[in-house]
Amino acid sequence: MFHKLYPRDQIKNYLLIDLVLTVFLFYRVLSSDTAPGLWGSLLLLLLFLVSFYIALWRRSGWLLAAVLSGQGTLTVLGIFIGPGILLFGILFADLLGKSRSKGQIAIGSAAIALSYLLVFVIRQEPLLKTENAIYLPVMIIQTLYPAIIYIREKAKSLQGELEEANQQIAMYIQQEERQRIARDLHDTLGQTLMMIKMKTELATRWVDKDPAQAKRELGEILDSSRTALKQVRELVSEMKFISLACELEHSVKLLGTAGIELRIEKPEKSPLLSSVEETMLALCVREAMTNIIKHSRAKRCTIRIEAKDEAYEIHIADDGTGIKEPDGGNGIPSMKERMKMLGGSFSIAASPAGGTTLSLMLPLRQHKKEDPA
């Protein structure tokens, strides 16, 4: 129940200080011979407590009004008792620094400085007198204190926003990483497992007719299983480099296993591609080959590679049944995403003569060099 009287977020750092200062203020006022009488002193102390309570809970215009009221109360007490009473104004200076308005802080700080000047002028005590010299630096500190508190609170707020932003970024990175792993599992490991499946079916058919051939197929299944295990290890660490030339050779073998004839047309010289670009293109080719095997029912397929002045293009055409979902599905979104990351383009459409044509275009504005080989 106590947190309803005193803010919960300030109990740990400020409660004891506020309590001690308030007790000392009451003692100093009520024990002074120059105080404005018992009832006058009690009335001013009550006004001090009300002002402090309002400033404790408010952060809008009420805060400034409470600070001005409380500092005015201390000014009156300081005129009667002495400038030492103004030292208790640190309570309001601290609360003023938690205002959301720089203008309110400026007005409140000016009021704190003015209260010191009024007390010394009315009491006709020189501020720079030897015994009063301590009050000048105290006045300066007390006047600047709200701005210091404001800057500190602002820094804490920005730190909180930064931590929240970092958490959101971390969540986004985790999500992107999960999507990357899922995509790579689909594109890389999925193809290897499909080859194992086809080889197993072949081995099953050969086991009675030609045990030697079945044994060879089982050997290839063992090799593919080792490849799958290696791919899993690579995927859990980071994306590996995939050679486009090796992927094309693998595609010939893969489609041949599925009974699809693959012809590759490529130029004698190809531009130098970065590792990321070559890997992304190779993965797109891999995804296209997987789709052809799974969905096209094709008998023949052609991969035509063109190295133009400003673009590197890969065109993949088959004579199958044609694409059913040109806007999505069958790994198309992942191919689009990869080409978009490279600043290139992706297109897929049904061929007029039947089958599907897929095109990948990579701009070569940054790749003028050619492979010297």
From TrEMBL:
SUPFAM superfamilies: ATPase domain of HSP90 chaperone/DNA topoisomerase II/histidine kinase
Catalytic activity: ATP + protein L-histidine = ADP + protein N-phospho-L-histidine
Transmembrane regions: 12-30, 37-56, 62-93, 105-122, 134-151
GO molecular function: protein histidine kinase activity
Regions annotated as coiled coil: 148-175
InterPro entries given in the database record: HATPase_C_sf, HATPase_dom, His_kinase_dom, Sensor_HK_TwoCompSys, Sig_transdc_His_kin_sub3_dim/P
Keyword match Nuclease: no
Histidine kinase domain mapped to chain residues: 184-366
Domain of life: Bacteria
Database matches in Pfam families: HATPase_c, HisKA_3
Entry keywords, A to Z: ATP-binding, Coiled coil, Kinase, Membrane, Nucleotide-binding, Transferase, Transmembrane, Transmembrane helix, Two-component regulatory system
EC number: 2.7.13.3
UniProt key word Nucleotide-binding: yes
Name of the protein described by the UniProt record: histidine kinase
Species per Swiss-Prot/TrEMBL record: Paenibacillus lactis
